Amino acid sequence: MSERLQVMGIGGNENGCAVIAGPCAIESKMITDRIADSLKRCGVRYLRGGAFKPRTNPKEFQGMRKAGIEILREIGDKYQMVVVTEIVDTEHIPMFEELVDIIQVGAKNCFNYELLKKLGKCKKPVMLKRGASAKVSEWLMAADYIRHGGNENVILCERGIRSFEDSTRFTLDISSVQVVKELSKLPVVVDPSHAAGRRSLVRSMTLAAVAAGADGVMVEVHEVPSESMVDAEQALDMLEFSKLVEDVELIREVRNVRGT
Amino acid sequence: MSERLQVMGIGGNENGCAVIAGPCAIESKMITDRIADSLKRCGVRYLRGGAFKPRTNPKEFQGMRKAGIEILREIGDKYQMVVVTEIVDTEHIPMFEELVDIIQVGAKNCFNYELLKKLGKCKKPVMLKRGASAKVSEWLMAADYIRHGGNENVILCERGIRSFEDSTRFTLDISSVQVVKELSKLPVVVDPSHAAGRRSLVRSMTLAAVAAGADGVMVEVHEVPSESMVDAEQALDMLEFSKLVEDVELIREVRNVRGT
Amino acid sequence: MSERLQVMGIGGNENGCAVIAGPCAIESKMITDRIADSLKRCGVRYLRGGAFKPRTNPKEFQGMRKAGIEILREIGDKYQMVVVTEIVDTEHIPMFEELVDIIQVGAKNCFNYELLKKLGKCKKPVMLKRGASAKVSEWLMAADYIRHGGNENVILCERGIRSFEDSTRFTLDISSVQVVKELSKLPVVVDPSHAAGRRSLVRSMTLAAVAAGADGVMVEVHEVPSESMVDAEQALDMLEFSKLVEDVELIREVRNVRGT
Amino acid sequence: MSERLQVMGIGGNENGCAVIAGPCAIESKMITDRIADSLKRCGVRYLRGGAFKPRTNPKEFQGMRKAGIEILREIGDKYQMVVVTEIVDTEHIPMFEELVDIIQVGAKNCFNYELLKKLGKCKKPVMLKRGASAKVSEWLMAADYIRHGGNENVILCERGIRSFEDSTRFTLDISSVQVVKELSKLPVVVDPSHAAGRRSLVRSMTLAAVAAGADGVMVEVHEVPSESMVDAEQALDMLEFSKLVEDVELIREVRNVRGT
Known about the structure:
Oligomer: homotetramer
Strand content of chain A: 15-25%
Number of strands of chain A: 10
């Protein structure tokens, strides 16, 4: 098998499965601190949380913006966690380059090529979510926009595509995990939370992703999911999440023992 | 948790994962015999094989038809395997009722309601594949066409939906496994082979299905896949398949130990 | 330009635009008579009406079945109109061959190849609706199933495909009109009513179809749309319809004068 | 009927149909001049041409960038045409505000909300193309991002959505023209060229758009289409285009006479 890239401990040939977790949106320092504390105790090393939220409806909460990034950095440092958060504008690149460990490009900006080009000149790893209308081939070419600038530290993230099915928000394309592995050396992570749109599906879809061979999973959690300001329907609570992390480990072991 | 139905040993609350396997098309008695012999030694109890093939192109091989059904029955009896094969016309129901153990309705006939109504009066279990354009809700209502006739022995089979992605033949909707479990007591099986369209993806997608909680998987195998008359690109050979069956067991055990 | 086929006065190179109209379902002789009478006075020569209704939900009205076919025939004879209605089972072919002028295969049976094969041996023209998940290439191969049996009198009917857009029931693929004309000599008709799913869109979509070059349009009308037993939301009333027929003529004239 | 907005002569209740035309990409001053000269003689008042090209493949020609904008402005002034061109980065807004008459946001940036917000503070009209995965409701909310900033001069542009059909690049959603008119007062334009992906379909789809009630159409033309640096397959030559403009007028007249 060809050598697969590792970016920030995600991917490579050692076959660990990274768990990236946190709230959909950074809401306050206190809440973020408590969530990170719980995650850390579950063994999670990657903390996600949105500060700039590209909401479909302009009237909805758009995130804490810079203040959210600063909270995330502070909490990341306190718990020694790698922080991942979404960028939405080229003019924020210096701030992200200073304060963020992995810069996420969301599905809505997957084809924002000017952003991708500028991130190609950036020193921080980039996690590129698949656009809801992106074929795998187009998604990989979007990653090439970053790589051609000189930044090879790209992590791909499958998060569902648009289809006619309406029992979920997006249709998680589980086959893309293996398709990407055949076409690219980049690590591939799966976000079941945004595809599912409701928490009762998240465990099933997360375990499917691990079994499919994903290098990581990104899951939304919240102390009190029903009080989450954004996407309250899809966050797991800490109990559900801690059990899920153990399941992820067990499935991963099967794959490791059996070969990929 | 509510009680889940078991049909012909598939589904129910005991959480086994049925493996249904065999060639895409029945090609001859000799080949079918050899495949069944190998499958049996892998512990497989369900033998699939198409005799009536609803091919997209009218110029392509349409299956051995009745002769194929007879071969399947004979081989099924020889190895004491449950045989599963597709029906394509209401007028064949008596033949299927006599010779077949599980009558499959293919994706192309998922909305052929006259066929479904008549199968509702039939004594044999029916495996209903999801139509390529069927929402989960519509698929379940198609199952209701069978059930309303009095036949409650329906097995659902997810086999991929139509989307814009063209790296696979269909987009396997892995989330449907859990969605169906929340809406129905019927067992749900996943067919990764037809969704994938090529063998290199089948292992990843099969394991994903098991981890997602599928009650069974249906996989195409062939002694010499390259010589298969139909869908040669997607069948596994026996070596790949026997390894896959072991992996399926291991993943399933994790789910059983951890609860569903 | 290559010669284009004409089937029952629809298609060919003379560039008329056939209008096929009628209720979604035959509900009674009296209602059908009144609708046909009105249609005839609008100059409509093709009367549609469903007797066998393949409803998504098995609990909904399934049509008057044979009695509906007989009403349609009687009214068709009274007003000297060509009658078009949908077949759903191979065993009804003799009845349809005797009583129906154009046998419609609905979208849900577009890939019911046994039905198509048997209609290939039938003497009556067949109107083949595009399946909701059918690529144009697959739809044309479905038509080949009929033609290979010896029945060249096939009319294609575009009626919308499944997409993620949910403001309409299906997404009318207007480009398919010209795509089909480049690949086939068969006449192509457009059904805007089922794609739209509500009457306020029907005029816009019908005129688009005519301007795109469709050989015909099929439109649902009802005396009192709100009382229609099936798809009440999408039928036009007679006033809207009569105005639409005049608009169709005017748009068609532009295309005829200017060349196709 | 409610009052509909007019933006730069496009839309409103007077029911004219604006024709926006030009090359996919600005390639040189000489070519742009000759195309504009021909367009002007056809009566076209809106000149389009891409200077910043968001190409799927990073290795392909990315446009003349600022030099292209300057050519477009110069030629627009020479022929007194309104110039329309695409913006791809927030940092270019001052340049576009100075040199461009209608700022186009392409399908790939339909959900680039930071760009939309900043364009909401801009004095120039914005033409917002529908994202390939955007429901009509999401597209209208994207327009609201611009309008909430204070810029009400938004023109919507339907250009096709992603579906499984592969005989065209995108599936032109012709029904969206009327759907948008029912939900919004904003003018709606249709771009058949990008949806079609090949010139033989453009006439049929353009006339469909006009008949459907579009306030304008945007068509790619080139002096020598086969020599076009970008999307050579879909541009019309001047002869095809001049005939099309006449057809557009005739279809539009029918709609005007008959009421919308």
